[in-house]
From TrEMBL:
Belongs to the cytochrome P450 family. InterPro entries: Cyt_P450 (IPR001128), Cyt_P450_B (IPR002397), Cyt_P450_sf (IPR036396). This is Cytochrome P450. One of its GO terms (molecular function) is monooxygenase activity. PANTHER family: CYTOCHROME P450 YJIB-RELATED, P450, PUTATIVE (EUROFUNG)-RELATED. Signal peptide: none annotated. SUPFAM superfamilies: Cytochrome P450. Pfam families: p450.
Length: 84
């Protein structure tokens, strides 16, 4: 929490703590990727995936998705946001 005033905001408003934790996990995710092997033929985003193909999910990229987050590259954003 190096952003000016962020630490003081959390110290003075305990309700902001959950948001700060969520933002920290989003911005500095402890798990960045996960790999799996396809077991059946399928289509992912218009690309055919064959059985045995290795797939990699990049959580770090998803956590910076501008269609989900108003300021994806900015930390912190203590404004409340809807989660699904």
């Amino acid at each position: 929490m190096t952003e000016a005033g962020c630490f003081e905001t959390v110290r003075s408003d305990r309700d902001a703590l959950n948001g700060a934790i969520e933002e920290t996990l989003r911005y500095r995710s402890p798990v960045r990727t996960a790999s799996r092997y396809a077991t059946t033929k399928t289509d992912v985003g218009g690309v055919t995936v064959e059985p045995g193909d290795k797939l990699c999910v990049w959580f770090a990229a998803a956590n910076r998705d501008p269609t989900v987050f108003d300021t994806p590259g900015q930390y912190p954003s203590l404004a409340k946001r809807e989660t699904t």
